[in-house]
Design a protein that fits this description.
Blueprint: H1 7-16, H2 22-31, H3 38-48, H4 61-68, H5 72-81
């Protein structure tokens, strides 16, 4: 049984996804009293359309798909392939 993500947790991972690794985000969440594994964070970021790879110009898959006028699933497949 999974524990529902709180709004605060989601805000933290979305804000940190651009420059931190999932392990670093897990550590940040732990310091704030949340217990999420790096795998759970990776899956949530992926589900939200974010790359789990830190970059300085991180866009969601949905945003990229809209700009390039592509299907969302095409962009997420590209991200998964690296």
């Amino acid at each position: 049984m999974s524990i529902k993500w709180t709004d605060e947790e989601l805000a933290i991972i979305e804000a940190k996804a651009e420059v931190y690794t999932v392990k670093q985000i897990a550590s940040i969440l732990k310091r704030r009293g949340y217990q999420r594994t790096p795998v759970a964070i990776y899956l949530k970021l992926n589900n939200l359309g974010y790359s789990a790879r830190p970059t300085l110009d991180n866009y969601s898959c949905q945003e990229i798909a809209q700009v390039l006028q592509l299907n969302f699933s095409t962009v997420t497949r590209w991200v998964k392939r690296g």
